[in-house]
Write a structure and sequence with these properties.
With 208 residues, this protein is α+β, with helices and mostly antiparallel strands. It is 22% helix and 23% strand. It has a 5-stranded mixed beta sheet, with helices on one face. Strands 2-1-5 form a 3-stranded antiparallel beta sheet, with helices on one face. It has a two-stranded antiparallel sheet with strand order 3-4. A hairpin with a 4-residue loop joins strand 8 and strand 9. It is elongated and about 70 Å long.
Length: 208
């Protein structure tokens, strides 16, 4: 619950700081975003708005599709409230088995995510002069080009080569420069970079 309440507020502060830096003309002084991100295999984490298909072996009356509520919990037959936020499908299935074991013998549960949103902390946010600024669910090996296709590119007023990525790490937040104009308008694949969960892409308006 605390993650849901504090994440949007923290992001607003970070976005305000980053936008202020851009307005001051500091984007050119930022380090370029690394093209690849060293990371282990990504396991999707469940978030509010996801839809889950819960299958209970040999108990079809307990099997159903359920939404993850805004508070990150789910409700199902014999289960009033169970926290699903931030769990992968396998760990949630084990938690459901523990709950159902109070009522049925040796339950075997499979959880399949059928509609993806993800937790707030892992969503990709695109703000500024994108054609369709929005929040996107993170996908493994997602790149800057994938993000720009999803948001429909840039507006005519965008200054693509002054765009930045705000990346939140465990200990600090880093801002990187990216060359959206070179990537989209010129097809320069060297300007394509890999995204990380929780990245914020900021596309400023051109001064001219």
């Amino acid at each position: 619950m605390s993650t849901l309440r504090t994440a949007p507020a923290n992001l607003l502060v970070l976005l305000a700081t980053a936008l202020a830096a851009l307005l001051a003309g500091c984007a050119s002084d930022l380090p370029p975003a690394p093209q690849s991100v060293a990371s282990t295999e990504y396991n999707y984490k469940i978030g509010p708005g996801d839809t889950l298909n819960i299958v209970v072996w040999r108990n079809p009356e307990l099997s159903m599709s359920v939404p993850v509520r805004p508070d990150g919990k789910i409700s199902a037959p014999l289960i009033d409230d169970l926290d699903a936020l931030g769990k992968d499908s396998t760990s949630l299935a084990r938690d459901i088995e523990q709950e159902l074991a109070k009522f049925i013998r040796d339950p075997v549960v499979t959880v399949i995510v059928t509609s993806f949103v993800g937790p707030y902390s892992e969503q990709i946010r695109v703000v500024g002069e994108a054609t369709k600024p929005q929040t996107l669910p993170y996908k493994q090996k997602m790149t800057l080009l994938d993000v720009m296709i999803a948001v429909g590119g840039m507006t005519d007023f965008a200054d693509g080569n002054r765009a930045t990525i705000l990346r939140m790490g465990d200990d600090a937040t880093t801002q990187y420069s990216v060359r959206l104009k070179d990537l989209i308008k010129s097809g320069d694949v060297s300007a394509n970079v890999e995204m990380k969960p929780g990245d914020v892409l900021i596309i400023p308006q051109s001064w001219f």
